[in-house]
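hey can u check if this looks right to u? its 258 residues, i copy pasted from the old doc so theres a chance i mangled smth
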Amino acid sequence: MIVEWFKYLSTPCMPYARKMGYLTEAIAMQSRHKRCYRQWQSHFQSCQNAILEAVSQCQQNRHLVIMGAGSLADIPLAQLAEKFQQVDLVDLVFLKPARQTAKQYANVTLIEADVSGVLSQVCVGEKTNPDKAYWLPDQLGQVDAVVSLNLATQLPLIPVRWLMKHFEMSEAAADRLGKSLIEAHLKQLNEFSGVKCLIADRQIQEYNAEGTLLDQFDAAWDICLPDLSSAWDWEVIPLGESVHKTRQINRVGVSIWG
């Protein structure tokens, strides 16, 4: 607890990211990764393989953008830094290990940004239009590949919880916002002219200790995502991690187009 508190105090990030819980979530995910290394490692390797498959389809190797870079654990950074002239890793929060890793490569840049473009407004309860707010790089036309990495279906979670808790947003309004954030992210990807790679949860299943399926739902909020190129199961929450003695398995899918 003391170590995590020190990380919270010493990690630079935007005020709304700290206030809304994004920094706390990043620190918690880092700790869970250490505890669940065996269950998570195959997922990370599959993500790396998918990224390498996507960039193999590039016509040029000038500029790569990865949104949702986070811990960098699911990114084959050495291969990408060697292949591309410029690699931009984008996320709201980067912890110290990610910053240290990125510093090893002269052509790798960490960009702290809200890719949805709406969080500063959401934080204070203002209405927003995700379809017109999302982040794009300055030299969009020079990007030969863009990756959305375990991000698309996560975008609504904290904003929706925040607005329902602090600003009494209705469930119907929360559902509309969640859908609009995912739809805007898909539009955002298609703004890029190069190869697009979407790695995202497609389905979430919860099991009890006996292996009985208790619940399952569409991770994409019923938004139609691009066709799958490949998919795998990720045991996000093993039995020992849940106070309810359940385990959560996410079906992760890859879509590559361009």
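The longest strand covers residues 195-208.
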